[in-house]
Design a protein that fits this description.
Helix content: 55-70%
Low-confidence stretches: none
Distance between the termini: 53 Å
Order of helices and strands: HEHEHHEHEHEHEHH
Strand order of the largest sheet: 1-3-2
Structural class: mainly alpha
Length: about 210
């Protein structure tokens, strides 16, 4: 008799999307190393040249040794709650922005230590939910990818709005400054500036924010 808990088909595409967006996906599991490797290969998390570390191997390493191999490691198997916390701390020492997902009580320390702790909402424990910064209501990894896409879109739009408004305001200030330096009549009156801000700045800025 054989038993299997197969990964969801959509997760493979989600992992590839993360990779193309510069996000590295790392599997940290309590399962056996062989099982973890098989699943990681199916999900395209583990590639040729990557490292897979067991909890026993991790215990034998110093923090400095862990930091050195961390960038090449995509699978951690047979790990304890303390190991998960140690991995998160090592990632942060290496300057990485870390997001940790988990559902059990044993995930709570790592969820709390990560820059962004993401708890599983449906099957997750209350301890994990309280320790996390975000809760997945549908227990789907693809939701995280969608949230990252939306967050990056909003961030880019904010940058566009700020750049647009700065260019317009700098142009107005420069025009008035030059006129003042050469003792010219004011090229822009208060009414003109108000009209520029309301008509030619506000509406385009709103349009940029909705892209």
């Amino acid at each position: 008799m054989g038993m299997i808990d197969p990964p969801r088909p959509e997760v493979i595409q989600a992992v590839e999307t993360c990779r193309s967006a510069g996000i590295k996906t790392v599997m940290i599991t309590g399962d056996h190393k062989t099982t973890a490797l098989a699943i990681a290969k199916d999900l395209h998390i583990y590639h040729s040249g990557d490292l897979a570390i067991s909890g026993q191997e991790l215990d034998a390493m110093s923090d400095q040794e862990l930091d050195l191999i961390l960038k090449r490691t995509t699978v951690f198997a047979r790990v304890s709650p303390a190991d998960k916390l140690r991995i998160i701390q090592s990632l942060k020492r290496c300057g990485e922005v870390t997001a940790m997902t988990g559902d059990g009580v044993n995930d709570a320390p790592a969820l709390k230590a990560a820059d962004i702790g993401v708890a599983i909402g449906i099957n997750g424990s209350d301890v994990a939910k309280n320790a996390a910064d975000m809760i997945l209501l549908d227990d789907s990894f693809t939701t995280i990818v969608t949230a990252i896409k939306e967050g990056r879109r909003v961030y880019r739009n904010i940058q566009k709005i700020i750049q647009f408004l700065l260019v317009g305001n700098v142009a107005e200030i420069s025009t008035l400054a030059i006129a003042t330096i050469f003792n010219w009549n004011a090229p822009l009156l208060a009414l003109h500036i108000l009209w520029v801000n309301l008509a030619t700045a506000t509406l385009p800025a709103l349009a940029l924010g909705l892209i």
